[in-house]
Specification:
Alpha-Beta Plaits; 3-stranded antiparallel sheet; 14% strand; binds iron/sulfur cluster
Amino acid sequence: MLGEGIAKGLVETARNFFGSYFTKDRLTTVQYPEERLPQFEAARNFPFLVYDGGDWQAGLRCVGCQICEKECPPKCIYIEKSKDKKPDAVGKLQFYPAVFNIDVSVCMSCQICVEVCPFEAIKMDTEFELSTDDRFGGLLWDKAQLAKSNEHYRKIHPTEAAEVDARLAEEKAKVDAKVKAAAENKTTPTSPGAVQPGSGASSTQ
Ligand code: SF4
Ligand code: SF4
């Protein structure tokens, strides 16, 4: 029948419109900002720098390697590597970013910086209420603004953060085992008859 599809569509629209007053499922919008829809775990907006522990400066995982800066397609990351070193998340002495800025007005949320980072140091945030009337200074974030705790990461991306935690714990256990083995080798007393490497002693007479 001519117009049957249009009539069916209008009936469906009317059902949803009037039904939304009685059934929550038919209401597809919420009263933002008082009400908010829960965010999807895979949601992403702009990057942040992850830190471990309670001190963001000491706990930043970033070692200032600048890989993300080189790989960022619109070149909106700016890093200056430190001259000195501090222990990283797994206890190895590493450089850190003396300066780490991201111009989020240029960032296209591609996540390439996250993919290329070998240190699990940069992740995508889900924060979206970022409007400002300062187009330049307000959207050029330094490392103090970019630093967010690992607890924050666990909260917004729990599955991904749990995998990263497990991987870092495994790496730390390997480093600790190596350090322990090296310390034990140093303190093990050598037996009187043992031949020391480089001592010049020969096993044959
Ligand atoms: S965020 Fe990662 S890739 Fe970028 S400089 Fe820091 S450690 Fe390197
Ligand atoms: S998300 Fe993409 S555009 Fe934004 S800082 Fe990372 S690499 Fe650059």
